[in-house]
Design a protein that fits this description.
A seven-stranded mixed sheet has the order 14-17-18-13-12-20-21, sandwiched between helices. With about 475 residues, it is α/β, with parallel strands linked by helices. It is about 40% helix and about 20% strand. The protein contains 15 helices and 24 strands. The protein has two domains: about 5-260 and about 460-480, Aldehyde Dehydrogenase, Chain A, domain 1; about 260-450, Aldehyde Dehydrogenase, Chain A, domain 2, CATH 3.40.309. Bound molecules: nicotinamide-adenine-dinucleotide (NAD).
């Protein structure tokens, strides 16, 4: 499908109670192509009233959906997965248009994001309780699993499909209903996904989508409504903290997938070819705009010059441009604010003594592009060692021994993921035990997988998405004691 045909076919309204409809205030918000600055579409801009209407619908649909046989729920998820495969070219193109990632990476996200639909369609029929005697032998203990209730999902702009399926699929699998609010910068993919669920036969009200330019005003009444039983958020840590505070009075179940500041440690015994390949992926995938992006390259002093030379050479070969163009591997940053932030982080590091070996500056518009950058000799105290860069900037610091590397890696309030490169098995095992992160790549640069429990330690979040754990974020257990029937 051409870009124009695809955009013309995307729903632009709110999806509430199984119907597509305008916002009550009849307002719209523009969605931009970050590669050109042009408007792709105007979509409904919900007000708080619309948000509450979406929760009404999710609440109304809950009892029936919770009672729907697991096999039926599983089949709908599986059908949605199949429809996504049929439409994968359209979904990939849509993500490239609204978010900017290169088309090949958008296809990668369709595969990854789609997998949550298949994984949780399979998990749906495996939710089980247990039955057994209590230790005293006086009774029988029964443990059953129940959906938590209507859920509110808030997602970021950087992985428009995967962040939505990672929440919707386990919620629906567990028997919960959902209101989802995608990021205002990339809402089209979620609207498209909702239309696939509709086509797959999902009953009205089980999934509701609200798009809005006033996230805080629309979200707050939903979160404070006692009918809501679960809040699942992916985004920045400061917003996550604010939402946790809002969730506290209702003692809401919460899942928080928050920011990262991943260390990427290269020991002197690493396979350098592999480490360089992995560095390119861990840093430049998604234009550096991933919570799992390597933020601090911590490289042994004896190989730092060689590592720097090799990554610089590779970065010089990266082609920057619109994600739809052939051979492009670096698209635009999401908006002008991201350009300002990346520029100020690079300027700060340089002012403190770092050397730019390639890139280092924003590229003139149209579009919001930043030249892929390598910084060597980054000095302690530089802002980009403390903050998520969220841009295509590879920052290198050096270490002398293993303890030093661990201390540097752990000296952050975040704990999402770490990457370690060593050919020494015992050292690799020590790193597994010593690094304070919820996930780790040992000699690999990408860890995400629908079958794995994705999530962070420390300020990187609460709860896990994917894996065997993912569905339990949307289930609550009930323990019942009965008498010993033989007593
Ligand atoms: P963000 O926190 O600005 O926004 C995330 C979502 O929250 C968006 O939908 C936004 O509209 C909404 N939002 C913002 N303020 C709100 C408020 N007061 N009330 C309700 N909703 C509000 O984050 P972003 O810029 O969209 O995404 C980038 C961040 O997300 C980075 O920090 C990144 O590390 C993190 N992230 C984490 C993971 C993970 O799994 N840990 C995955 C992807 C992104």
């Amino acid at each position: 499908m051409s870009e124009q045909d695809l955009l013309a076919a995307i729903p632009r309204q709110l999806f509430i109670g199984g119907a597509w409809r305008d916002a009550v205030a009849e307002r719209t918000l523009p969605v931009y192509d970050p590669a050109t600055g042009e408007v792709l579409a105007h979509i409904a801009d919900a007000s708080p009233e619309d948000g509450v209407a979406a929760l009404d619908a999710a609440n109304e649909a809950f009892a029936d959906w919770a009672e729907t046989p697991a096999r039926v729920r599983a089949d709908i998820l599986r059908r949605t997965f199949d429809l996504l495969q049929e439409r994968k070219d359209d979904v990939a193109l849509l993500m490239t248009l609204e978010m900017g990632k290169p088309l090949a990476e958008a296809h990668g996200e369709v595969a990854y994001g789609g997998e949550f639909l298949r994984w949780f369609s399979e998990a749906t029929v495996h939710v089980q309780g247990r039955y057994g005697a209590n230790p005293e032998g006086t009774g029988r203990m029964i443990v059953t699993q129940h959906p938590v209730g209507p859920c509110f999902a808030i997602t970021p702009w950087n992985f428009p499909l995967a962040m939505a399926t990672r929440k919707i699929a386990p919620a629906l699998a567990a028997g919960c209903t959902v209101v989802i609010k995608p990021a205002e910068l990339t809402p089209l993919t979620t609207l498209f996904l909702a239309s696939l669920f509709e086509e797959a036969g999902l009953p009205a009200g089980v999934l509701n989508v609200i798009t809005t330019s006033t996230s805080s005003a629309v979200s707050a009444p939903i979160i404070s409504d006692p009918r809501l039983r679960k809040l699942s958020f992916t985004g920045s840590t400061p917003v996550g903290v604010k939402l946790l505070q809002q969730a506290a009075p209702g003692v809401l179940r919460t899942s928080m997938e928050l920011g990262g500041n991943a260390p990427f440690i290269v020991f002197d015994d690493a396979d350098l070819d592999n480490a360089v390949d992995a560095a390119m992926l861990a840093k430049f995938r998604n234009i550096g705009q991933a919570c799992t992006a390597a933020n601090r390259f911590i490289v042994h002093r004896s190989i730092a010059a060689e590592f720097t030379r090799r990554v610089t050479e590779r970065v010089q070969q990266l082609r920057v441009g619109r994600g739809t163009d052939d051979g492009v591997s670096i698209g635009p940053l999401i908006d002008a604010r991201a350009i300002d932030k990346t520029t100020s982080l690079v300027d700060d590091a340089v002012a403190r003594g770092a050397t730019v070996t390639v890139g280092g500056v924003a590229i003139d518009g149209p579009g919001t592009f930043f030249a892929p950058t390598v910084l060597s000799d980054v000095q302690p105290g530089s802002d980009l060692l403390r903050e998520e860069i969220f841009g295509p900037v590879l920052a290198i610091i050096t270490f002398d021994d293993e303890d030093d590397a661990v201390r540097l890696a752990n000296s952050t309030e975040y704990g999402l993921v770490s990457y370690v490169f060593t050919e020494n098995l015992a050292r690799g095992q020590r790193m597994i035990e010593r690094l304070q992160t919820g996930m780790m790549g040992l000699n690999v640069g990408v860890v995400s997988n629908a079958a794995a429990p994705f999530g962070g330690w420390k300020l990187s979040g609460l709860g896990r998405e994917g894996g065997a754990e993912g569905i339990h974020e949307y289930l609550q257990s009930k323990y019942t004691l009965t008498a010993n029937p033989f007593a």
